[in-house]
Design goal:
Layout: H1 6-10, H2 15-34, H3 40-55, E1 67-76, E2 82-88, E3 94-95, E4 97-100, H4 108-120, E5 126-127, E6 133-138, E7 148-157, E8 170-177, H5 186-201
Helix pairs in contact: 2-3
Length: 202
């Protein structure tokens, strides 16, 4: 089965969706292959994600395997001293903005930018095109057939003085100091926050 055929077989339906997910699959592979991981743990995640893409032509679609790809973006203020997080409605916890890929996304980066803009209410949010972090995590809670997310992560700096808003997918959106991250997700967020700040500062 080719990447173009897989989403149709998984239930995505239309040929245009199949082609769209095939393009996202190819883009994810190229992006990961070109990414210089900052350390052995991230390199191992990159290699594992590439292996997952090779094994699952439908890995970019939510209707693909229970373990599939997502994209996200961590938003920081212009001082890099605070992060904008969403209190996720399903997870009931504070996280960066992100979600599943959609057929209308032109690239992996474009999907992360869309999620960041939609969930933060910042229409002109500028997302850096480079990967800053990778993560693979099992899901706990009401996530339907989704069991594991392979997340490709980007970073953005919010315009100074911007007024974020809450989307339908969130309970709340709030700025948090990087040295005072929410207690329940601090350990999960800290590696991403550290990587994003390092990338943006450089």
């Amino acid at each position: 089965m080719t990447p173009a055929e897989a989403p149709r077989a998984a239930g995505c339906g239309r040929v245009d969706e199949a082609a769209a997910y095939a393009r996202l699959h190819a883009d994810a592979r190229a992006l990961l292959e070109a990414w210089g991981a900052p350390g052995p743990r991230q390199a191992a995640l990159r290699d594992g994600m590439l292996a997952h893409l090779a094994s699952h032509p439908d890995a970019m679609a939510k209707t693909g395997p229970p373990a599939h790809f997502t994209g996200s973006v961590l938003v920081l203020d212009h001082t890099l001293a605070a992060v904008l997080l969403t209190h996720h409605r399903r997870a009931r916890a504070w996280f960066q903005f992100g979600g599943h890929y959609e057929p209308g996304d032109s690239s992996v980066w474009a999907a992360a930018r869309r999620e960041g803009r939609e969930e933060s209410g910042i229409p002109d949010l500028a997302v850096r095109p480079e990967i800053v972090h990778l993560d693979r995590h099992r899901l706990v809670g009401d996530f339907g057939r989704c069991r594991e997310h392979l997340d490709i992560r980007f970073a953005a700096v919010a315009p100074d003085g911007v007024d974020p808003s809450v989307s339908d997918e969130s309970i709340d959106v709030r700025w948090w100091p990087v040295d005072g991250l929410p207690e329940d997700t601090r350990d999960e967020l800290l590696p991403l926050v550290t990587a994003a700040r390092s990338a943006l500062a450089g």
